[in-house]
Amino acid sequence: MRKVLLFSCLIIFFVSPGFVLSQDASRVGINLGISSWLNNCDVPAGGQDTDLRPSFGPNFTVNFGKFRVGGTFYWGNFDIGPQDGIRQTTAVEFINDESRTRGFTSLGDTKRIDFTLNAGYAFSRYAALSFSLVVNRHEVDLVTYWFPTEENGIITNLPIDRAISFSYTDTQYWLGQHFGGSVPIETVSTRFSLFYSVGLLVILGESGNSKIGDEEFDSPRVSYIAEVGGMPGPGNAVSLGTRPFGENVGFTLNVGAGFQLLNNVGVYGGYNLKFFSEDETDFIDNSKFHGPFFGINFTVK
After folding, report:
1. Which of 122, 206, 236, 274 is most exposed, with minimal Cβ within 10 Å?
2. What is the DSSP letter of 127?
3. What is the C-alpha to C-alpha distance for residues 233 and 231, in angstroms, rounded to an integer?
4. Residue 101: enclosing H or E segment and its boundaries?
5. Which pLDDT score, from 0 to 100, does residue 100 have?
6. With a cut of 70, which residues of the chain have pLDDT below it?
7. In degrees to the nearest 10, what's the CA dihedral of 227, 233, 235, 241?
8. Is the separation of the CB atoms in 274 and 198 below 8 Å?
């Protein structure tokens, strides 16, 4: 039932354009751009977040009258350091509440790729609807440190002998529905405008694999939560399989401003938020990627 409702929401949103404004004049054109997104990356252990790090990539849009097709690409590398979950004083201790609760924290790095293809219809410059295919890929290589012995209820002494390597590759495919547009602010300048975009994502499927210690799994999701006082490891790990269509949903929001420097050159900047639910996993309850972005675009035709 949940999958049917999610798919129905996408269809209703797509076929209900009555609220949009009238069409402006449009023309055939090609726009190329490059941008950077200063975002963070979740760590699938201990509820850790990295600091804001840059992702880079190109984008393009082709206009055929009212119809538009386009795509974006981002690539980023996120180092996961001690400041994300532990600290060193006279002893090594957890500083992240989620790490403390779950009983472990992770150090290492993760690479993240975002790729989007979209096609839509512009009713006017103020409002456009589109469908998109979104691919998120994560390549993670971590060392996970497990819950140390408590002393008077205080967590101290991160034990190096209770660490285990954890790596995985995860590729998720999403179907997206987006609504957005731009609003000119002529009181500032005839070349200045604000833009927005909101979207709903539904997962189409997932593929990948993972490895804990020397044990390999044919899915990117595994559960290896330790029993209290026990030594966690591959012997306790259980594969959670891959996510099927409709099991997870996401939400995206983009807001920003653009300025046309020349007739064929513009600059823009704003804030991007992507939120994904993460059901049926002992690692994280949700993933949230957020941060400011900026870029430059060129009108080719």
Report:
1. 236
2. -
3. 7
4. helix 97-102
5. 66
6. 1-27, 42-49, 81-104, 146-162, 223-237, 278-286
7. 90
8. no
Q: How far apart are CA 130 and CA 54, in angstroms?
A: 27
Measure the CA–CA gap between 22 and 42, rounded to whole angstroms.
41
pLDDT tens, position by position, 73-92: 999 888 776 556 666 666 66
Contact between 267 and 295 under an 8 Å Cβ cutoff? The reply is: yes
Q: How far apart are CA 76 and CA 80, in angstroms?
A: 13
**Cα–Cα distance between 210 and 203 in angstroms, integer?**
20
pTM confidence score: 0.77
d(CA 164, CA 170): 20
Q: For the beta carbon of residue 230, count every other beta carbon within 10 angstroms.
A: 10
Do residues 133 and 116 make contact, with C-beta atoms less than 8 angstroms apart?
yes
Distance of CA 72 to the CA centre of its chain: 13
CB count in 10 Å sphere of residue 216: 11
Q: Environment class of residue 184 by beta-carbon count within 10 Å: exposed (0-12), middle (13-18) or buried (19+)? A: middle
Beta strand spans in the chain (E): 29-39, 42-43, 48-49, 53-64, 67-80, 86-88, 92-94, 104-122, 128-146, 150-151, 154-155, 163-184, 192-212, 215-217, 222-223, 238-239, 249-262, 265-277, 286-299
Q: 289 vs 16, 37, 44, 148, 276, CA distance in Å?
A: 29, 10, 13, 30, 9
Residue 260 near residue 191, CB atoms below 8 Å = yes
Is residue 3 within a helix (H) or strand (E), and if so which, with residue range? helix 2-14
